[in-house]
Amino acid sequence: MYGNMEKPAFLTNLLICSLTAWPVLNLCSQETSLPFPNSRFDSVEGIRVHYRIWNEKESRPKGKILFVHGFAGSTFSFRNLYDTLAIAGYKVIAVDLPGAGYSSRTLEFNQSHSNRARFLWKFLDRIESGDTSRWILVGHSMGGGTVEAMAILSPRHTQKLIVIDGTVYRKDNNMAGTMSFMFKQKKVKKLLIQYANRNLINYKKINRLLKSAYGRRPDSTEIYGYLAPLELEGSSEAIINAFIHNKEIRDLDVRTLTGVPALAIWGSRDHWVSLNAVRPALNAFPDLKLVKIKGAGHCPAETNPEQFIPPFLDFLVNP
User: Which of 285, 235, 16, 317 shows the shortest CA–CA distance to 141?
Assistant: First the structure.
């Protein structure tokens, strides 16, 4: 699934995380209000995509950065980075993937890394009106695998690649195999949806999951930031779809990613996607720098911004 990450503990954490991670949007609410002051919506392949943008009118930005969240995330996940980057002169776009955050739902969307990557390049081309500038791609957790796929599919449009505690790989077959087969069974699917609806999408459970991911107790703002979109109707169906409909449309091999500088930032106490599990995949990157955030868990950009931001900015400005 993700290189050498096919371990029972990882799959258990991934399943638990996934069952609370794909918030569903009531499409009517999109028409009447914006989730954030800088929210935007656009349609790509019939899917209504929510994204946020900083320095939108900047004609000559210092660089252009795309943020892609993980399973339990949305644009909320990178909140500690946006203002710093905007002040530094970067144009920043954070996107909610189809089936997540405030983007619309379709059970027809293929949730493989390569298809998400293809979709996001099309999204960027649409909102940037054909601008040929190269992008700095940043992904957390599952989003790390997606931005890796983006760079592999289009290295000439990729300036730099940053993976934060990500589901990286050498060669990726995504969710193919036993788990995908299991989720396709009607009775199993029905039971999982019922269980998620009744037991997982509530304040107490999100608190517990964030405590595990953060390595500390989350505050109420953090909990509600994740919970708000999860409470919208249809979350469980979209979650299960991520395991069922995910066949890769392109071969992905990180060893072909030459000429693109990459940075991996990892929490030293990440028990969700442990650094030891992904080291073989990281070692396959042609040009990679690794930074460990001491004492951090799975979400160092959220829990340890003072330690996270300096190496992040340094990588942006240095060759």
Answer: 16
Residues with Cβ within 8 Å of residue 172, at least 6 apart in sequence: 1, 2, 3, 113, 114, 145, 149, 248, 252
CA–CA separation, 287 vs 304, rounded Å?
25
Give the integer Cα–Cα distance in Å for 240 and 226.
18
Measured from the Cβ of residue 8, the count of other Cβ atoms closer than 10 Å reads: 7
Q: What is each CA distance from 248 to 48, 145, 163, in whole angstroms?
A: 22, 12, 20
Candidates 58, 54, 40; CA nearest to 85 is 54
Token pair of 221, please? 């703002």
> Is residue 247 a contact partner of residue 172, using CB atoms and an 8 Å limit?
no
Q: Give the C-alpha separation, 127 to 115, whole Å.
A: 18
Quote the pTM value.
0.86
Give dist(CA 74, CA 182) in Å, integer. 27
Helix (H, G, I), strand (E, B) or coil at 243: helix
CA atoms of 164 and 78, how far apart (whole Å): 11
In this predicted model, what pLDDT tens digit does every residue of 117-138 receive, in sequence order?
999 999 999 998 877 789 999 9
What does the DSSP assignment read for 140-186?
A: ETHHHHHHHHHHHH-GGGEEEEEEES----SB--TTTTHHHHHHHSH
pLDDT tens digits, one per residue of 141-166: 999 999 999 999 999 999 999 999 99
Domain 8-62+82-144+168-203+218-257+268-288 = CATH 3.40.1000: no
Helix (H, G, I), strand (E, B) or coil at 24: coil
Torsion (CA) 105, 110, 115, 121 in degrees, nearest 10: -20
Contacts of residue 298, Cβ cutoff 8 Å, sequence gap at least 6: 141, 165, 212, 213, 214, 215, 267, 270, 271, 272, 273
pLDDT (0 to 100) of residue 184? 54
